[in-house]
Each structure stands twice: as C-alpha cells, then as structure tokens.
Amino acid sequence: MTTPLTPLALLDTDSLIDDEDRAIRDTVRSFVDDRLRPEIASWYETGEVPVRDLALEFGKLGLLGMHLTGYGCAGTSPTAYGLACLELEAGDSGLRSVVSVQGSLAMYAIWKHGSDEQKDTWLPRMAAGEAIGCFGLTEPDFGSDPGGMRTRAVREGSDWVLTGNKMWITNGTVADVAIVWARTDEASGGRIRGFVVPTDTPGFSAPEIAHKMSLRASVTSELVLDGVRLPGDAVLPEVEGLSGPLSCLTEARFGIVFGALGAARDCLETTIRYVQERQVFGRSLATYQLTQAKLADMSVELGKGMLLALQLGRLKGEGRLQAPAISVGKLNNTREALAIARECRTLLGAAGITLEYPLLRHANNLESVLTYEGTAEVHQLVIGQALTGQSAFR
Predict the structure, then answer these.
(1) Residue limits of the Acyl-CoA oxidase/dehydrogenase middle domain (predicted)?
(2) Which of 170, 327, 342, 365 is deepest in the core (most CB within 10 A)?
(3) What architecture does CATH give domain 133-234?
(4) Which residues sit opposite 134 in a β-bridge?
C-alpha cells in the first residue's frame, strides 16, 4: 500500500500558487474548519444563519471586497480571492455567497461605478462587515433576460422614485444597502441605471424567501420597491445600460469558478475517508475497482477544474481575462462539481443523504450555483457567440 494523495495533489496544483496567495488560502481554510464547520449542518437544517455576526468576522479577516483596493479593502490578487472563495465553499456555498455578493456585487458596483461620496459612505463600512449589501437585478419574470426588467425609476423633480420587485436576492433581508437596477423613464433616457438604496428608505421591504431546499445557510429575499424616493445623487454616475450589472456579474462569476471546486473537493475528501473505513463483504470499500474508478474520474475532473481556475486567475491578474473565458470556467466547474457531489453520494449509500456528511448538502447547494449568475445554458450561448460571432439570445 502506498501513501494516499489528496485529489489535488495528483497534479501538484499548489506549486502553481505563490506563497502569499497560499498563506491567505490557508488562513481562510483554518477559519472554515474552526469556526464554520462545527455549525454549518445546524444552520443548514434550521435555515437560520447569523449573517450579521459572520459579516463582522469576515470583515476582520479582510475577506469582504478583498480583491478591491482602497476604502479598507485588502487589495489581494484575483487568485487569492478565488482561493478564499474555494475554501469558504468547501464549508458551504451559502457562506461563500455572503462574501461573494458583498464584495463582488454590491461593493464592486459602488467601487467601479459609484461616486466618491458613495464610495466614502459605504465601502469602508462594508469592508469591515459593519454594513451588509445586496444586489437587486433578477426579477420574478426576468432572470436570464435582465434587459426585460419591469422595475422603473421615474424622475420627480430632483428625486428618483423606484417601483418594482426583485427576486432571489442574497442578503436582502439583512442588508443595510441595496444596489438596485431599474429602467429609467423615457424623459430620463429609458436606460437601465443602478441606484444605491439604503434599506431603511420608506417603501423598501425585503421579505425572506422560505422553504428552500438549497442554500439554506444563507438569507434569500424578495425586494419590494413601493414608490421608494431617493435623492438625485443615489444613482451610480459612471455607468448606463446593462453593461453596469453585467460587469458586476462577471466579477462574481470569477469567484464561483473557484468556489464550486471547494464543494467538490470537500465531497471527494470526505468520500475517500469514508470508503477507506467502510467494510463491505469483509473488505474496505476503497479496495474495489468500481470505487477506485469513480474516485479516479472525479479527481481528474477536480484537477482539470483547478487548472482552469488558476489560469483564469492568472489572466485576470494580468488584465487579460475576457467574459467568454469566465463563462468557460463557470460552466465547467459548476457542472463538474455537481456531478462529483452526486457521485460521491452514491459511494456513501444511505449515509450520504444525512447531514452527518456534507455530500447531499453540497449537491443541493450546487443545484443553485449551477443556475445563478448565469445558467449553464446562458454560458453555453456566451461561448457559442464567442466562437461563431453570432448571437443566439434573440
């Protein structure tokens, strides 16, 4: 018997990560192991998670907006941010979503497209976890087609008045500020604009969505905007049109490319430990050829996904990462991570459906990760357009 390798050690992907990024990864891994793993099964089962407390802890670790610069943000490399997402999602996709939505959607929108006043007001508090943000783009009838949104922003004097609904919004119920995208009235150009909306503004409410079977360890909400009146300077001044929200989604998808691998790695490592201990027909389950074939195939896909993620991190660090490449990463890594979680469950049999092991929890979560921030089908069409030069969306 030889000394077992971990799945990612097969390709020695650690050798492709520099010392600083590896140190950040290891810090996050220790935090997940010590603080989050002992609680996550309970949070998932009850559907209750202390987001506000965790946000403060994430802030102390420098995780919120960690890849941004200034305003109390750590300014890490893209790869360090991706690896942090991987370790968080090895704990739970819902916990990674808290960090991802805060930093790559809400904070990034203000950092990239906001005014100096908006940045000074919100970013330092959000980086510290003292203020929580959410990102309101998706609507009940418009997910993959955000350009059809019905939320409207009407100019009344110097103010804006927002009316509409958003759906499936992470952190919405606990948020202090919402980045809401709305179509302006014709007199204001009829373009989609982003608005910085304090959630205590009259007319704003965010009822929590209950009875979820996925991402139970996160807060998912509807946003209701019933004549929400905002001052003229609430609009994000540096962007108009769908390029604004789509730039934020591209930023967030990068973290998902890494994050999904964390869930897959956790499933594989759990399964390898289990099959070595489990006795079937008088011998270890790990000694059977079918078991080893499954583990081999899954580890190959995990390793390929990690190589893909690290290449995207390198391109992003060099300022050369294009949206179709992120679609390649999001499509492949979420699809393969879900397949790994499901296959690992088969090796645990009935034990795999319990919360004693993370497999079905990860699989349920990855069902959402597969479809949010662009469904698999949307990313296929993005890649198809890049290859053919022809859009299949309309």
Answers:
(1) 134-228
(2) 365
(3) Beta Barrel (2.40)
(4) 178
Tokens for 323, please give them. 């949206």
Angle between helices 289-317 and 323-348 (to 10 degrees): 160
Rounded to the nearest angstrom, the gap between the alpha carbon of residue 186 and the centroid of all alpha carbons in its chain is: 34
> What is the pLDDT at residue 147?
85
Q: How far is 106 from 104, CA to CA, in rounded Å? A: 6
Q: Which residues contact 174 (CB under 8 A, 6 or more apart)?
A: 51, 52, 132, 219
Reported CATH class of domain 7-127: mainly alpha
Buried b (16+ CB within 10 A) or exposed e, 348-361: beeebeeeebbbbb
Question: What stretches of 238-323 adopt beta strand conformation (E)?
Answer: 279-280, 283-284
Average pLDDT of the chain is 96
Annotated catalytic residue within 45, 356, 373, 377: 373
CA separation for the pair 11, 9 (Å, rounded):
5
CB 268 within 8 A of CB 363: no
For the chain, the domains span 7-127, 133-234, 243-388
Predicted confidence (pLDDT) per residue in 106-162, tens digit: 999 999 999 999 999 999 999 999 999 999 999 998 888 888 899 999 999 999 999
Give me the half-sphere count of Cα atoms (radius 13 Å) on the Cβ side of residue 391. 2
d(CA 55, CA 299): 33
**CA dist., res. 31 & res. 96, Å (int):** 13
Q: State which fold the 243-388 domain adopts.
A: Butyryl-CoA Dehydrogenase, subunit A; domain 3 (1.20.140)
Tokens 């910085």 locate to 196
CB 138 within 8 A of CB 170: no
